[in-house]
Write a structure and sequence with these properties.
Pfam families: NAD_binding_10. By secondary structure, the protein is α/β, with parallel strands linked by helices. Helix content is 38%, strand content 18%. The protein is globular.
């Protein structure tokens, strides 16, 4: 049996960690790059931890030697300095993918679509960003196309799952990790749909697509449907069912973000994403269905319960 090797950047994060573990289950040897492996490595995770900096092309090239898949799931800490750091980080991964002739897998998202894409954009819909993050996301995809490396972009909605990080709306607003759910902070508007993506389903989709290497074009991009909340109330209802009571629902304090921006740089970035909570935008997964036949999909109640358990939000009863 041929040994398949993957390098994952961002294996301590939500997407990177989920993809790394799913690749392992599929028999891959998975290397994980980190500046301080001794601090994060655990024997039970089964990953081969490699010391290196995702910003240093030489480190990424060396770590990717012999790999056929490179997962670029790393972001600047706290989403700071995106405009300065994101593209240089991607350039390092592109250099590594070119050197090892690997497929570069980039987790994408809905930010690339603006109002011109319509309420149900497919994978090839016009990309007209409305935000700084959207423009950077488009620049990342363009950089992959222009580089000529074999690339795979999988776009999904807002992440939630047992390994959800603080960058997720689920763990940063709806619930508070490590605490029982008494209150839900709702960023949405009644009647406005919202698209979510369960991390294990995202990882499963990515691994299945990577297994179809022979049938993928040089640049391949797919949208996931994930979990569509048609009226903005279904996710909160699922949380209530999981905890066994109806939590108090409070509105997210959008009006306070401009006041917080001077001391909390992330506030400006969060405010830019408000349009995704005020207008329904549901990505279509036609291309994904055409290739895989079906999209991996965990039932909402099961996914929400697993997420809350992983975040330490379920009381033992």
């Amino acid at each position: 049996m041929t040994t398949r090797t993957a390098l994952v950047l961002g294996a301590t994060g939500g997407v990177g960690g989920a993809v790394a573990q799913r690749l392992r289950q599929d028999g891959w040897t998975v290397r994980a790059l980190h500046r301080d492996p001794g601090r994060v490595a655990r024997a039970e995770d089964g990953l081969v931890w490699v010391r290196g900096d995702a910003m240093a092309a030489a480190d990424v090239v060396a770590a990717a030697a012999g790999a056929s898949l490179l997962v670029h799931a790393v972001n600047p800490p706290g989403y700071r300095d995106w405009d300065r750091l994101v593209l240089p980080m991607l350039d390092a991964s592109i250099a590594a993918a070119q050197a090892s002739e690997a497929r570069l897998l980039l987790p994408g998202n809905v930010y690339v679509y603006g109002r011109d894409a319509g309420p149900n954009p497919g994978a090839d819909a016009p990309q007209t960003p409305r935000t700084a993050k959207g423009r950077i996301r488009i620049a990342m995809e363009d950089r992959l196309r222009e580089s000529g490396v074999r690339s795979l972009v999988v776009r999904a909605g807002d992440f939630f799952g047992p390994r959800t990080t603080a960058n997720s709306w689920f763990s940063a607003a709806l619930v508070r990790p490590g605490r029982p759910v008494r209150t839900v902070l709702d960023p949405g508007m009644p009647g406005v749909g919202h698209q979510w993506a369960y991390l294990p389903d995202v990882a499963e989709t990515m691994v299945r697509l990577a297994a179809r290497e022979a049938g993928l074009p040089r640049f391949a991009a797919f949208n996931m449907d994930g979990h569509w909340d048609p009226d903005g109330r279904q996710m909160i209802a699922a949380i209530a069912r999981a905890v066994g009571r109806r939590p108090r629902v409070r509105r997210f304090p959008w009006a306070l973000l401009p006041l917080a921006a001077p001391v909390w740089p992330l506030a400006r970035e969060i405010r830019e994403m408000r349009y995704l909570w005020r207008e329904p935008l549901r990505m279509r997964n036609d291309e994904l269905l055409a290739l895989l036949g079906a999209e991996p999909h965990t039932a909402l109640d099961e996914a929400v319960r697993a997420t809350l358990a992983g975040l330490g939000c379920l009381e033992s009863r």
